[in-house]
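[audit] Reproducing an earlier prediction to check determinism. Same input, same settings, fresh worker. If the tokens differ from the archived copy the diff job will pick it up downstream; this log only records the rerun itself.
[audit] input (391 residues):
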Amino acid sequence: MLSIPKIPIDDYNYLLPDDRIAQKAAEPRDSSKLLLYNKGNISVNIFKNLPDCLAEGDHLVFNNTKVIPARIFTQNQNGARVEIFLLNPVGQDHSMALATTNTCRWECLIGNSKKWKSEEILSITIEDLRLELKREDNQIVKFEWEGGLHFSEILNRIGRLPLPPYIKHEADEEDSKRYQTVFSKIEGSVAAPTAGLHFTDEVLQNLADRGIRKSFLTLHVGAGTFLPVKVEDATQHAMHSESFEVSRQFLESIKTAGRLLVVGTTACRVMESLHNMALSVLDHTEPGFINQFAYVGENRKLSKYEVAETLLGYMNANGLEILKGRTSIMIIPGYEFKLIDGLITNFHQPKSTLLLLIAALIGDDWKKVYKSAMDNGFRFLSYGDSSLLIP
């Protein structure tokens, strides 16, 4: 693989005071602020007016993943509290694991793990439900139960919503609604695709009325999205991987899309990963996993139509209705975007891979955008305000 120029992570730092980190979501959703960056020009608006900022024929891509109650609390035989944070199912995809009715295995983060000895079986009992938890190694937990409930139903009974670590209150009833998008559908995320939190049914209808099309893909957001870059050279950061899927209908919809605008960095990563998947198909290799820098040294650039046609051909040849993959793609300054023409996104943490993606899209103007947001009282991070970035 060709070498990648070093990227000093300190170049992507800025001062984020604690009081600028939103602890609650705006109410109503579309009352949040919207910063517009259009080819270098910056202005400030309200998210409700997003349809006025777009043009007929624009095409929005949304991530319809749904956050699961991924935090589970129990006790060992001595009464010590143990927290289990679900990350990824083992040996199954999210849909299959959440639909199981007696047992499943998950990769987990375990809080207070020293209090859970490997041979000890923990349990949770609520009314007629008894869930047993067996530790298979440092991170793999096997869940077993009787009664025929889907694992997703069990989580809804015993689990808690996993708010980001910088939100300082425990998840409550309000969060259970507001930390989901109005179009959330496919369960599996442990973090919300927060760019979508600003949309209301009214905004979606106004977009449709103006001739702005929309499509939905699914990427299950992992806890790795919150990991800061801790190495001096950002290219040495080990990027997390996340599973995604797109339908035949989705690929058909983007073939003739006009200006393609993605809602969130998650949708952005999927779209750019689809380009790599299409190249894999053309190279007669299995298109399942996109590694961190799969694009380095690759000079081919396919159109939206070519990507969609290539992947649809692969699906036809393999009898697939849904195309599934997993991506670790890390989009950094210097990256040439293949499929997207713009991005709707919140304001991200200093020294994060998400901020690197923003810098890849609009260059050093990210500093102007973030300064303008600070100067205009914008709120930051998951429950914060929004931006529309057109490079």
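[audit] rerun output stored. Observation attached for the diff report: Residues 70-158 form a domain with the Thrombin, subunit H fold (CATH 2.40.10.240).
[audit] end
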